[in-house]
Amino acid sequence: MGELTQTATVTQQETVVQPYIRFDPEYTRTIPGIVKIACIVLNLIGFICIEFSYFSYRPQGSFFNTIAMLGFWFSGIMLVFYLFHVCEKFHKIPWLKIELYFCAAWTLLYMIAASVAAATSIGAFQAAAFFGYCAMVGYGVDAFLKFQAVRAGEIAQGSRTVHVQQQQTVSTLTA
After folding, report:
1. Quick one: which H or E segment has residue 10?
2. Pick from 150, 144, 30, 145: which is nearest to 94 by CA?
3. Which residues are in the MARVEL domain (predicted)?
4. What is the pTM of this model?
5. Cα→Cα distances 67→11, 61, 126, 156, Å
6. Could you tell me if 111 and 50 are in contact, meaning their C-beta atoms sit under 8 angstroms apart?
7. How high does pLDDT run on average in the chain?
8. For the chain, how long is the longest CA-to-CA vector?
9. Mean pLDDT of 57-75
């Protein structure tokens, strides 16, 4: 006398990676690769501006240089990981989330460090502040790109496809 409808949703996820380490310079031609290289260069230039100043020992300079060098090394190591497909080999590690959190934190820390450096009357610190603000924008763009990739369910390297299949069953009940 009545109908019973059952719907089943089957989701299949397929991850395709090549699990061997190899050098591939193609990453440097992608937008995330260009942004990462720009951040590395801006970190280094800001660090050099402070270091070659006579007042590099001041706390403002030390704070800026700490932020710049931690950003330089993290971004540099991640660049090497992408160039040699280490992220693809270890695709189970949530690289995009790690980078998203780092880039978001570094955007905030660079805003603080560059503002502190810009508040001084030392020309080298003000020059470093300019590069710090540029690095802040770079890390902000990188964080936005990582956020979009995480939300889309992507992995750092390789490809992931998701297949969703719905199946409906209609049964007639008789009494």
Report:
1. strand 2-16
2. 150
3. 27-151
4. 0.81
5. 43, 10, 16, 25
6. no
7. 87
8. 94
9. 94
